[in-house]
Amino acid sequence: MNITKCLNEWNATVEALGQGKQTILIRNYGTNVPEFLLYPTVSYANKDNFLDSFKKDFKGFAKENSLPKTDGKNKEVKYFAKVEEIIEKSSQRIGTLKPYHIWTNEHVKSYLKKNKAYIWILRVYELENPVMSQTNGGIKYANLKEEVPLDGIKPVINDKDFNKLLKDIKSKI
Asked: If DSSP codes are grouped into helix, strand and coil, which group holds residue 169?
């Protein structure tokens, strides 16, 4: 199977997902796109205070991973994700999810602006061969200019640990 559909996301968050440090995305919208590549964005890293969006324990990680590997206009795409579940939650009750993401509560609340939170529980896979590519544009979603094969993808979190995380996350929601 090949894919071109991708979700645009901060590179630090892409790496947190790809390295198993994060399992969820908190959004102010749901999705009908069940699977996608994670395409690294960098505009947030151009702000002087971008590290303020990340928890103290993850500031070093976010700084080290603020920018993806690039080659001209191409960016390295390394991960594929499947939306396992989306759960709606009041934006005032997202504090219970702190262990499952790298952002500060202030950042998440500022992003949500009191709108309902949609918790995307993602199963992330590492591509067997990362690709250098660019998109055809798009704000939330885009398509890569060429197809990426999904042969040989490997989950970044094994089945047993992922199922435990899924159960833990659901118990907090």
From this structure: helix
Spatial distance between the Cα atoms of 30 and 55, rounded to a whole number of angstroms? 25
Residue 7 sits in which domain range? 2-172
The torsion of the CA quartet 47, 15, 72, 42, rounded to 10 degrees, works out to -20
Spell out the per-residue pLDDT of the chain, length 173, in tens.
999 999 999 999 999 999 999 999 999 999 999 999 999 987 655 666 778 888 899 999 988 998 899 999 999 999 999 999 999 999 888 889 999 999 999 999 989 998 999 999 999 999 999 999 999 888 899 999 999 999 999 999 999 999 999 999 998 87
Distance CA 7, CA 83 (A): 12
Q: What is the full DSSP assignment across 10-73?
A: EHHHHHHHHTTS--EEEESS--S--EEEEEEE-GGGGSTTGGGGB-GGGHHHHHHTSS--EETT
- Can you give the CATH number for the domain in which 157 is found? 2.30.130.30
Predicted TM-score (pTM) of this structure: 0.93
